[in-house]
Amino acid sequence: MKSLTLPEIGTPGTQKIPYLKTDKKNANKYVYYFGGGKADGNESMKNLLGGKGANLAEMAGHPDLRLPVPPGFTITTEVCTYYYANEKKYPAILKEQVQNALTVVEKQISKKFNDEANPLLLSVRSGARRSMPGMMETVLDIGLNEKTIKGIIKHSGDERFAYDAYRRLIMMYADVVMEKAEGKEPRGGKGIRKVLDEKLEKLKQKRGYKFDTDLTVSELKALVKDFKATVLKVLGKPFPDDPYEQLWGSIGAVFSSWRGKRAVEYRLIEKIPDEWGTAVTVQAMVFGNMGETSATGVAFTRNPGTGENKFYGEYLLNAQGEDVVAGIRTPAPINDYSRNEQSKHLPTLESTMPGLYNQLFEIQKKLENHYKDMQDIEFTIEKGKLYMLQCRVGKRNGIAAVRMASDMYKEKLIDAKKAIMRIAPNQLVELLLPMLDPEIQKVTKPIAKGLPAGPGGAKGRVVFSSDDAVRWASKGEKVILVREETSPEDVDGMHKSQAILTTKGGMTSHAALVARGWGKCCIVGCADIEIHSNTKSFKANDGTFIKEGDWLSLDGTKGLVYKGSMGLVDIDLDKNESYKIIMDLVDKTKLLGVRTNAETPGDAAQGLKFGAEGIGLFRTEHMFYGQGSDQPLFLLRKMIVSKTEAERKLVLNELFRYVKKDVKDTLNIMKGHPVTIRLLDPPLHEFVPHNAAKLRQLSQELGISMNLLKRRVLALHENNPMLGHRGVRLGISYPEVTEMQVRAIFEAAAELLKSGQKAFPEIMVPVTCTESELIHQKKIVDRVYNEVCKELNIQEIPYLYGTMIEIPRAALRAEKMATVADFFSFGTNDLTQMSFGFSRDDIGGFLPIYLDQKLLDDDPFQTIDQEGVGELIKFGTERGRKTKPHLKVGICGEHGGDAESVKFCHRVGMSYVSCSPFRVPIARLAAAQAALEYPIINSSFNNN
Ligand code: ADP
Ligand code: MG
Ligand code: MG
Fold first, then answer.
1. What's the gap in Å between 378 CA and the centre of ligand 2?
2. Ligand 3 being an ion, which residues bring their Cβ within 5 A of it?
3. Which run of H or of E encompasses 843?
4. Which of 379, 617, 692, 850 could pair covalently with 597 via S-S, beta carbons 3.0-4.6 A apart?
């Protein structure tokens, strides 16, 4: 293990992607041409040309493809960078390069820009390295004015088409260039596009037309005139007549849209760096709006909703590109397979234009074979001729992602490595949870939106308290618990609910953490609703009124709340062959072990089903919450307020059988897979009784006065319970507490072994900071071990003794800690808390500000702080293994199920990660990806 060759550890999320440096030859080359079977660029140049530009170049110029792409050129992202660094000016030679490229385009297509006889029209399109759908701008039909339109009419012989294009240009240009790029605040919140659009709608209404295409030539002409006058009136500037002014205005507007509000917000969410910039692609227009032999459409090489290997798409006759997405008319299906409820009666492209459909079909096949992934394509048919306008790797949901990866692997289109890398670990969540029926969801409007804290779908009847949840559930009702926020006392009701909805709290709030752990649907921070607890009802901002007992449906993946009871679709993993194929590849690839955190035998079984190889964290504390907790909780309280060893021992004797049963059941379910049992670390302050009746009962059972009891309770008060009398400190002041647990563990294991079962407990001591604590507790363990072996007449009980590393000092002293411990498990929740000095219960006050002002990139409680806490983990692991080369090292805590954190654990050379049952498949996939991304040579992972 000493000779681990570990790659440097950086922060993958924030790591700078090496900027594509232009080589000498191409220094100062800002414009890349494509078209006519040639291209300056190719698919690998996304950083420079943006995704759209790079793929257009690939489609146009790659010898295997050479598809019919309208000619054009791409202005690089470097110009965008320059533009922002130089007060929105361009490099001096850009004009000349653009002019030269434009001349080539003109030759290629035999039309001329700004020419009255046979004018070329252009589109100006945006494109970043990574697709940011709908976030930036596009302007079509550039180059039209009162003179060139004559040429267009003459050449096309279609006056209607020419004016249709003209009114589109004015609308887009006024919106994108004259209003948005200029940063003009729309009057009364109504943008120019809306103003013009309303004029169009009014006209259609007046004439009784249903579609844009019904407008006549003279109506369109009048509309264009009206549009121009309106632009002048509303924006105070005329729509520019000069085609070159239109062109440069549009180019500038696309660059400006990179810093538009929408784009900036999108980048923040998607973590796309601001420095990347966008490229601008200028391309010859082709027209799908030239009558009934023209059309435009979008398609996917496979079904992005299911992953099925079927060509899938929509098109519109006599329309321009943006009409399909804008939903102006219902698009028709390209083939029978693509029909849906709304489009089932419409004619398919396959039936109306069979020849062109076949051509498109062949092209999409070629594209998928070329890119070896599902492609999302845009096409336009101009008077019976097909053009390709865009291709990119298509977005897909989790279910489709798994299906496609597995199918493509079977088809031998991709290898195992690619199949594993194709799926984002978090996408697997969608396969594990039931979800709202997507078809119904599509046509239903949510009443409120909150933070998506626990994914999946759920429906139930609304209740407003944990007690009600328990009561209703016991009558067999499905309920959704709606609260302002939740606390540990609500856990039982939360457990009994189908889902949890809170109006306050963030992604790390109590409700969010608990729900995520259980894989329960949960929405938090839903400020769109206001709870009136006195009338047991709530009101949503949209006016919807919901009272106790009403049905509600939640989409926890997106944070959407729906009124009523919506259908749920359940997903049976065992029936998902694609999932099985992928996870089989995953398990063959990963080096890191994956365990589950389990509080109950039920959790343990669930974890096993999801592929857990053991339990990394089993806490007995759960027995003090929820169903059946009355007696153990009472005993715990009794123990807490006991004063003498004798008092305490009496209680412990009673508590013993609960602990033993719990441990035994769990060891039994795990059938010899290791089970790490953490010794008690109860937050004492949470368990101190406050209720008078409970206090009285306690005083009676202990035989002490209420006064004395109250004084004892008062004495338990701590100023900083998180740093107080907890963890191993309890076991040191009250060795009998440790003894009771250890005895329970050994007896449980011994009994299983004697009855022919397997059992492998790992005893974990929490909150340690020095090896002397471990030595102190080990003496108890050794003594009890011998006693149990003797009493039960058994030779040997296999077990390990180790510690949780959750105090920075313990990590720094790892070399010494490992002299006593057989294993370490990094408790990253506390380790983060104590490294940052951020109280986990109090971060709500300041962490949002830190994230907002980018003082921190991520919430360190969600993603391991690799630079700080990660250094402690790395150091602790290395030092520990200096003492014991085969020291087992794992992690428990929320981080174990976070994909980035799992990859980090792999790179540190850990033996395993442990996470809640529903995160197990995600952690497995992340571990396999880590093994592929960061091969570790010569390691001796011991991961069971
Ligand atoms: P987005 O990135 O939002 O998809 P696009 O640049 O792809 O924006 O353009 C928006 C629409 O305009 C698309 O439907 C596209 O097909 C269409 N379009 C773009 N360029 C042209 C062109 N040269 N000829 C015809 N239609 C075009
Ligand atoms: Mg597009
Ligand atoms: Mg802890």
1. 7
2. 806, 827, 830
3. none
4. 617
The tokens 């498109």 sit on which residue?
360
Q: Where are the alpha helices (DSSP H) in 524-678?
A: 577-589, 601-609, 630-641, 645-670
> What are 374's two structure tokens?
């599902």
Pocket (CB within 6 angstroms of ligand 1): 70, 123, 125, 134, 138, 140, 283-286, 321-322, 378, 380, 389-390
3-state secondary structure of 262: helix
Choosing from 55, 75, 123 the residue with most ligand 1 atoms within 8 A of its CB, the one to mutate for a pocket test is: 123
Q: What is the pLDDT of residue 558?
A: 85
- How many Å lie between the centroid of ligand 1 and the Cα of residue 389? 7
Question: Which atom of ligand 1 lies closest to the CA of 127?
Answer: 2
Phi/psi zone of residue 767: left (φ > 0), alpha (ψ -120 to 50 degrees), beta? left
CA distances from 694 to 239, 488, 537, 641, 698 (A): 79, 18, 32, 12, 6
pLDDT, tens digit, 9 for 90 and up, residues 338-390: 987 678 899 999 999 999 999 999 999 999 999 999 999 999 999 999 999 99
Ligand 3 centroid to Cα of residue 551, in Å, is 39
Centroid of ligand 3 to alpha carbon of 827 (angstroms): 6
Catalytic residue list: 510, 892
Q: How many other C-beta atoms lie within 10 A of the C-beta of residue 68?
A: 17
Q: Which two tokens stand for residue 152?
A: 């267009």
Q: Which of 148, 143, 159 has the alpha carbon at shortest distance from 118? A: 148
Under DSSP, the state recorded for 856 is S
Query: C-alpha angle with apex 53: 51 to 58, nearest 5 degrees?
Result: 90
What's the CA dihedral at 413, 415, 421, 422 to 10 degrees?
20
Q: What's the whole-model pTM score?
A: 0.81
Ligand nearest to the CA of 379: 1
C-alpha closest to that of 499 among 474, 445, 463, 550:
463
Reported as a single tens digit per residue, the pLDDT across 713-763 is 888 888 888 888 899 999 999 899 999 999 999 999 999 999 999 999 999
